[in-house]
Write a structure and sequence with these properties.
This protein is an alpha+beta fold and 300 residues long. The chain folds into 3 domains: 126 residues, no CATH class; 29 residues, no CATH class; 132 residues, no CATH class. The protein contains 9 helices and 7 strands. The chain has a 6-stranded mixed beta barrel. Helix 5 runs parallel beside helix 8, helix 6 packs across helix 9 and helix 7 packs antiparallel against helix 8. The chain is elongated and about 100 Å long. The relative contact order is 0.10.
Length: 300
């Protein structure tokens, strides 16, 4: 895999109508194995010589060249001499036979760059699609076959999902840290809220007792004790939500392709916070409401 400069046939590369693109040497099984989608044109032929001078572009490269119908168009390339001059004897032509849908072959922090798939062998690199449940058996067979076909050559392998994990290792680390501290903060907040609600219920023991004597229901008393806490939590949420949105937007700016943060994210978070807070506060409120009013008034 390397970068190489190409331009449409019949145009002068000196005028700057060129495009640097990734050059991948693949065979006819590469596209179906990786599940790529051909949006126009066809795949490479099984006949090794049939598509020797053909190329399949990704959408980014097809758009870069500005072809209305890229199928059948020809692009040129040649090597550059050490002194920077061009050598026409090394001019090569490739006919476009297909265009694949854009896919990410770099980090999501980068734009999808131009890519060309060419018919040819990639030295020492083979891609297999195997069943995860039988991975160890498949790898063992592949290694044995490799030893027979390339004796003395070292054998190593890696999984595509592991490469993705490595690519986004820092993001996964940040995600785990945020999750851990979020859980810790919620636990500490619940403990504080639990203690504060217990103190508030104790301070209002006489009031609760009088209200029960006058016929107040348990639900009414729970609502009375809890509403002040819920109000504070709602105020805190409406202050924290814009701050959280701003921080997330700043982090997402690192990515060229990013998700949209909708209102539903904050709505679900707000409902979750209110439920957790309500359960925490209600425990002490129900306990105070269920206390015999005679004992409550007597203790006062």
């Amino acid at each position: 895999m390397n970068d190489q400069t190409f331009w449409p046939k019949g145009q002068d590369p000196v005028q700057g109508n060129t495009s640097s693109m990734q050059v991948w040497l693949v065979d006819e099984d590469y596209i179906p194995t990786l599940g790529m989608e051909i949006v126009v044109g066809r795949n490479f032929s099984e006949d090794r010589g049939a598509d020797e001078n053909t190329v399949i572009l990704n959408e980014a490269l097809a758009d870069r060249f500005g072809f209305e119908d890229p199928i059948g168009e020809v692009i040129n390339t040649f090597t550059q001499n050490p002194d920077g001059s061009f050598d026409n004897e090394n001019l090569r032509e490739f006919t476009i036979i297909g265009v694949v849908k854009n896919f990410h072959f770099r980090s999501l922090k980068e734009n999808i760059s131009p890519l060309g798939l060419f018919k040819g062998g990639s030295r020492g690199n083979v891609i297999f699609k195997i069943d995860a449940e039988n991975a160890s058996i498949a790898i063992s067979k592949i290694e044995n076959t490799w030893a027979e076909m390339a004796p003395g050559q070292p054998f190593s392998y890696s999984f595509l999902d592991d490469r993705f994990d490595q690519m986004y290792r820092s993001e996964n680390r940040v995600s785990n840290l945020v999750l851990m501290f979020s859980v810790l903060i919620i636990v500490i907040a619940c403990l504080g809220l639990f203690g504060l609600s217990a103190y508030s219920a104790e301070q209002r023991t006489k009031e609760i007792g009088i209200r029960k004597v006058l016929g107040a229901s348990v639900a009414g008393i729970v609502s009375l004790v809890s509403k002040d806490f819920i109000k504070l939590i709602l105020i805190s949420f409406f202050i924290a939500a814009p701050v959280g949105y701003f921080i997330m937007q700043q982090w997402l700016k690192e990515f060229t392709y990013k998700t949209n943060i909708g209102v539903d994210v904050f709505l679900i978070s707000g409902i979750g916070i209110i439920l957790i807070a309500s359960i925490t506060v209600s425990w002490q409120s129900i306990k105070a409401a269920m206390t015999n009013p005679v004992k409550s008034l007597k203790s006062e």
